[in-house]
Amino acid sequence: MRISTDTSDVLVVGGGLIGLVTAWRSAQRGLRTALADPEPGGGAAQVAAGMLAAVTELHYGEQMLLGLNVASAQRYPAFVAELEEASGRTTGFRACGTLSVALDSDDRAHLRELHVLQRRSGLESEWLSGRECRRLEPMLAPGVRGGLRVDGDHQVDPRRLAAALVTACERAGVVLRRDRARRLSVTGGRAAGAELADGTRLTAGQVVLAGGSLSGRLEGLPEDVVPPVRPVKGQVLRLTVPRAYAPFLSRTVRAVVRGSQVYLVPRADGELVVGATTEELGWDTTVTAGGVYELLRDAHELIPGITELPLTETRAGLRPASPDNAPLLGPTALPGLHLATGHHRNGVLLTPVTGEVMAHVLTAGELPELARPFSPHRFAPASPGSAPARTPGQTTPASQEQPV
Asked: Is 42 exposed, middle or buried (0-12, 13-18, 19+ CB in 10 A)?
């Protein structure tokens, strides 16, 4: 075993979007920061579509999560401007809006109810007739019955975002350890760093576990602080819109088709992302013929012209889901160990606010008020006779979870 001579104030375990933004913001606060990941910027960011859908992702019973989502969405324009300046890279951020449409009377009724909930929650959305939807997006199928126009739900390219965060981290002085953290180091009842797969032992004053769906697999975690995070598989397709077909879509379009969510996210460079399946299959990341077929079938019913586009990529990734579909942020029962995981379908959306929250925790030692409902302590085992832990939202069955 090799013990590193470098001691950090903060060691971030996991180099996805959440780990990277935590490391970047920590370094900006003057903390000596290291990050351990075999491929910083990889993982779920390479699969996610990048919808910033605080309004169209609203669900009954998740109003507390809504507040965090909206707060992060409001931060995005300033966040990407700062990140692009710091990294010299673009993020693919587009303030293009989103259109959620209904293809039958049942879906239309559901969207009407969702519109009422959005308005009751203080969110801005506009109801459109089917004709108005098609006027806005001419490629829509003739059978569209109505929809919701949400001008505040935008998009970003997660791959570009991840690359920009890696560069920003490097320029801010974050030490990138390109290896897997195998075991948490605990000294004197406190998290004190981690051992890497090659045997190198890193020491740190504080450790942030931001390993996405793998967060619970870090060895050495005391049983009472293992994050209750499970992997939820999602298959995603990427197509290319030839110049002859442009403009194909001007904004993100999403709908429910045969009970399954489907979305189409058009990039400025001509890429079109179609997703995503929601599958409770453990650690399986196989792209299946059935998954590809279902996505293309549902997307074709929504946008018939999609079958003319070249299919350029098929991918599958794992979303880190918690029992209540909300993230786990902040200190755990083990001193010195913090969590930043469990973001499920909102990891890209919550990147800006998570970075701020975790930097505050690491410097001030406590969660800011906005993030207190998402403390890992809400899942702590209840003592006999105690009240149930408060959660930020009602647990959503796997069959109703929305894709990202």
From this structure: middle
